[in-house]
Amino acid sequence: MSAASQGQISVYDIEEAQSEQVRRYLDSPKNVEIMLDYDGEGEISASSKVWKATLWIYVKVRNGKIQKVSWFATTMGGLISAYGSALTEIVKGKTVQQALAIQPKDISEDLGLPETGFGTWFKRGLVEAINNYNAYKLSPWKRAYKPRQ
Q1: Per residue in 47-102, pLDDT tens?
Q2: Which pairs with CB-CB distance under 8 Å and at least 24 residues apart come from 70-75?
Q3: 0.85 cut: is pTM over it?
Q4: Which H or E run contains 116?
Q5: Class assignment of domain 17-134?
C-alpha cells in the first residue's frame, strides 16, 4: 500500500503536492527571518534519502502571547516554505499554551494537504523554541552565555 493511499504524501511526491494555499506561500513566503532578538529558539535537523536540512523557529513572547514568530531552514524549496509560512501564520497571536496545542495535521489542513511529515518537523521546532523560551524565563542569566549568530 502506498503512502498516498494511507493519507500521507511520500517525499517523492512532494513536487506534485499543490493546493491554492501552498501556491500562495510559494509565491510569497511569510515570516522567513533569522530573528536576532528572539525570546526562544528551536533548532531541528532532519534528513531523508532525498534531502537534509536544519530548521530554526524563533519566538518573541509578550504577556504570555506569541507576538512574533519566524523560521529559517537550510533549504527553502517546495513544501518547506509552505509549512514554515503556515505554521508561523497559525501561531502568531496565540498564547504559548495554544501554540503547543497545535498539531501537525492542523498545519497540513491549513495548507489543504494530507500530513507529509513536515508538519511534525515544524511542530518539533516550535516546541523546542517554546521550551527554550521557558528555560530563559526561569533562568534569565543563561541568555548572557548563549552566543548569538
Answers
A1: 777 778 899 999 999 999 999 999 999 986 778 899 999 999 999 999 999 999 99
A2: 70/31, 70/32, 70/33, 70/34, 70/35, 71/31, 71/32, 71/33, 71/122, 71/125, 72/32, 72/33, 72/34, 75/51
A3: no
A4: none
A5: alpha beta
